[in-house]
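README, section 4: Worked example with a bound small molecule

Sections 1 through 3 covered apo chains. Here we extend the same pipeline to holo records, where the ligand is supplied as SMILES alongside the sequence. The molecule in this example is NAP. Nothing else about the input changes; the structure line simply encodes the ligand pose together with the chain.
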Amino acid sequence: ILVELRAVALNYRDPMRANGLLPPEAVEGSPLSRGLGCDGAGIVSAVGPGVTAYKTGDRVSGLMAAALGSHALTHAGAVGPMPGTMSYIEAATFPVAFLTVHHTLADQARPLPGETLLVHGGAGAVGLAALQCARHLGLRVIATAGTETKRDLLRTLGVEHVLDSRSLDFAPRVRELTDGKGVDIVVNSLSGEAIAQSLDLLRPNGRFIELGKRDIFLNNPLLLRPFHRSLTFLGFNLDSIVFDRARGPRLVLDTAARVAAGQYRPLPHTVCPAARVDEAFRLLQHSRHVGKVVVAFDPLDEPVPVEPALGVPALDGEGTYLVTGGLGGFGAATAEWLADRGARHLALVGRRGAEAPEAAAVLQRLAARGVTATAYAADVTDETAVREVIAAVDATGHPLRGVVHCAMQLDDAPLADLTDERFAAVFAPKAAGAHILDRLTTGRALDLFLLHSSVTAATGNLAQAPYVAANAHLEALARARRNAGRTATALAWGPIADTGYVARSNLAATMTGLGFEPVTSTEAFAAADHILAAGTDVAGIGRYRWGRARRLLPSLATPRYAALVPAGAADADESREELLRSLAAMSTEDAVRAITEALARHLAGVLHIDPSELDPDRNLEDFGVDSLMGAEFILQAREYFGIHIPPGELMGGGRTLTHFARLIHDRLGLHSSQGAPPPGP
Ligand SMILES: NC(=O)c1ccc[n+]([C@@H]2O[C@H](COP(=O)([O-])OP(=O)(O)OC[C@H]3O[C@@H](n4cnc5c(N)ncnc54)[C@H](OP(=O)(O)O)[C@@H]3O)[C@@H](O)[C@H]2O)c1
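The generated complex, written as structure tokens:
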């Protein structure tokens, strides 16, 4: 069924996913992880053949992949009818939390009235749902939570025994509260040692419901001795149950029936209108909410700023695309990209034609994929020669449909050293060549007129005055053509890592050191697809560290570039570089201490506390760092040190600031290169 969304509740995995912090195993093969949001409520706007349970106009709530949008497509069995009086916002608070709890606690653990339940993380959405379910089943509840505010909430909700989940003291306290007998069921979301401690608390015939994913994804082992007491360990994956044709619909309908009967009630929630979805993500990320954060799509709210999904228009398989400089380097990669986009006839032009060193390999690669590529030997500054190439193309019966101008000639030298001839030799192939191509294709129906420019057109460059001028000229030509209603795009590339001049001259490390980090041609063309689809006239594609670049190119410090070089970027970059430089000169112990201090500053920022309150030798978990705060901390550390720390490494025993500082120290490779310049990220 197709559902027009009216409310979508977020889950912790959404901000994790948006920040690229979910491990691949959490996403691969999971229909619910196809996009953001999976708790939805809305109106059925279409039903597929064979769907009898719902019709257009029905109000439903349930699980739907990529629910955070105007519409979502889902299985009829994954949603349930909404009670008549319930709002969409309330209905969106149910699916993930209550399906999880109903399946694991009510269906799988099969509690008997009067049994004792220990709920870890009782103030989270699933925890709150478990409390409702437990009350309904007549269970005695002990709950844990990580902060005093959350524990207060649980007491207010009538939970008799509330303990701290951040220390392992909960185990002896539970024994005390149960006269040494322990509990019958544990609903767990804690990780590491807390799992073993909680298993030990189970009475004979006890059931352990594992809702945390961390230890499962890390494939951590579990000791089996406790199971001698006839214990049951229940793992859980919502995808596997909800999309199981036998179990899924029954679970969804059972849960919906409890909702309809008022046994399960909406969870506490905070609402953000869809136009301010960013606030919803921030709220969740900083755990400043109780229960659920719901994004509301109310037609009466302010409109949602929508960025249209741009389809990349295919090129004309019957037409010919002419690529100057297309017989080698980045020009040849460009020709292959045109083939990726549907071009089947290419005219590749260079002064050496098929004699160019890479030409044979380029032609062979294209032929192998069914593309007719013809090499033409012509100088693009020679109008007669270019006219002849176009005439030859016309004679093939595959009319010229596009031009990509990649030809370039370099001759780096200070401007004062250049003669007119040397200047023109660099300037003309780009600038004069582009004008010739522009003139000779006037009146033709082209769907592409692409000019390869360079980031240097914006930043300037030492010893490259004619090259910079020529690229600036190409960008002006693109704008002039657009103004005249003709197609044109100039793409100002940063250095390319895998092919072309920079790669051939082994300049990647030097460029990175200067703040211009090479990108692969795959990354470059992915960005180009987007820009071309958007119909932009001039755009840049590259990865830059402006703080470094500014030291080489003073022009970047002038007000003219204020928009290009974000305020503070230079300082942040410089302070990072300064840190890395000074670290390299320190002894290992001093460097680890300095990194620890930098990490403490970041973590303190995340936790809104003073860095001095952070004991570097305590586990991060002890500071109340939950997975989302952890995610933010990791992102900051990643940004600052240019080092990847997998989120899974954050929690558990021995995960102290000092531990991470040692890890970063090792990964920076400082111990092996004392005094050497810092490596690039
Ligand atoms: N590679 C990078 O990192 C990078 C970065 C930014 C921008 N770009 C832009 O990307 C384009 C391609 O760069 P690249 O690195 O691939 O350069 P490249 O390897 O040096 O190739 C330049 C090509 O242009 C051809 N050419 C030069 N003068 C010509 C002329 N007068 N008429 C016809 N063909 C001519 C050359 O072939 P013949 O010698 O046989 O004529 C050669 O195939 C350039 O426009 C450059 O500004 C590249």
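What to look for in the output: The first strand starts at residue 2 and ends at 10. The chain has a mean pLDDT of 90.

Section 5 describes how to batch many such records.
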